[in-house]
Specification:
two-stranded antiparallel sheet, 3 helices, single chain, binds zinc ion, elongated, two-stranded antiparallel ribbon
């Protein structure tokens, strides 16, 4: 079964960069958009939620250690770290949804990659 399929409206929830959650537009009789149907949180597969949660904890620990000697840049680093983590989580979530099996090490590598990129 497709977890991203809305049974009520018989269509798929999707998510673009600007959207906070998965959703799909609800059309009226004339085909105009009358509103949005948001995907309920419990429709997200548990494995995705768990991977994102675990990945976040591990990435946070590792990057805190790396930044230990850069206290003066703490605020900036913290924002960059947070951003890298968000991007990594989003990336990993989409990979898992696409059927990829990823380990926590993969999450770390992705976060490291984005972190380096932000600091270029
Ligand atoms: Zn719906």
């Amino acid at each position: 079964m497709d977890s991203y399929f809305c049974e009520q409206h018989q269509t798929k929830w999707f998510k673009t960069g600007k959207m906070k959650t998965y959703a799909h537009p609800v059309k009226g009789a004339n085909g105009e958009t009358t509103g949005w149907c948001n995907m309920p949180d419990d429709a997200v597969p548990t494995v995705v939620k768990e991977a994102v949660k675990q990945g976040a904890v591990i990435v946070e620990e590792k990057m805190t250690k790396e930044d230990w000697d850069a206290k003066d840049q703490r605020t900036r680093k913290s924002i960059e770290r947070q951003k890298a983590l968000e991007i990594a989580n989003e990336y990993v979530k989409n990979k898992i949804i696409a059927g990829k099996e990823l380990t926590y090490d993969d999450v770390l590598k992705v976060a490291d990659h984005f972190y380096d990129w932000i600091n270029k």
